[in-house]
Amino acid sequence: MERATRIAAIGTRYRDHPGLRAFVCALLASFASAALAQGTLENPQPAGFESGIGLVSGWHCNAGQIQVQFDDRALVTAAYGTSRGDTAGACGDTNNGWGLLWNYNLLGPGAHTVRAFADGVQFASANFQVSTLGQEFVTGLSDMDTYVLSLGLGKQLALNWQQSKQGFVITEVENTGFFYSDFTAAYSGTWYGAWNSPSSAGAINLTLTKAANNRDLILTQVTMANTGCAVNSRPGDDALKINDPWLYMEMTDGSDLLLGFTATQNDSMLGGTFYFDSGPCAGLEGIFHLSQP
To answer: Within 37-99, where are the H helices?
Structure first.
């Protein structure tokens, strides 16, 4: 009873002393912060995407061994002790980097979890998504090339499939001087034109609106006459991306309309293809061309 009474008295003084409570909370927070600062998992990123052969990596201040576990698989030992100058403040030294080269195709497509352990104790984890081409190691794609436009950098990037990495690498960079503001200025507004298919033709117009972030264009309405479906679309909010210019619009009768866009060199015309995925005229497809007054 005497011991219990002393413990109760200490608890009473703690509750009644705000300065002591603040000190204890700050001390616990510093301990937690120090523990968290001992190590990190930097790749893969939480809610990130991975494919091909990549690096699982991070840093840890003081471990004898770093191991990595994917889902419920066996632990795999990572290389540890590479130079990381940015960790000197947290660790007091710089030989804290760790990494594991990993073929993400081995995990298969879908959601996965990676956990990092220092001397058997977990210190970090992340959930991420994997996309694959259906094989553990894909061959015969060395002639696969593509181009993407970076509106943030004002550059066009040439990409080539590299078999050893099981992914694309940048092979060429070209300055375009074409940025987000140019993109939204060139294409925002209402466009008018015509559509054609093997069986029919008609008029089409659509409106692209600058998004609040000034980086994206929103397809807000489409009107297509003589399709056999509803003429007008419901209000839309899909963002048009310059490297993936495909958008769905829902017409007022529930028909799903898929539009794919291309532009002329001087941005004076828009064109592309359309396809009705559902509704009274499902299967109707063709091309369209548009200009602004």
So the answer is: 88-91
> If residue 28 lies in a helix (H) or strand (E), which one and from where to where?
helix 18-36
Bridge partner list, 287: 196, 273
Mean pLDDT (the chain) is 89
Does residue 166 sit in the same domain as residue 220?
no
pTM of the complete model: 0.70
Report the SS3 class of residue 291.
strand
CA dist 24 and 14 (Å) reads 9
Mean per-residue pLDDT for 86-101? 97
Domain co-membership, 100 together with 185: no
**Is residue 261 classed exposed, middle or buried when 0-12, 13-18 and 19+ CB atoms within 10 A define those classes?**
buried
pLDDT reported for residue 28: 38
Tally Cβ neighbours within 10 Å of residue 137.
13
Q: What is the pLDDT of residue 6?
A: 42
For residue 247, give the CATH number of its domain: 2.40.128
Q: Which domain holds residue 155?
A: 145-175
Domain count, the chain: 3
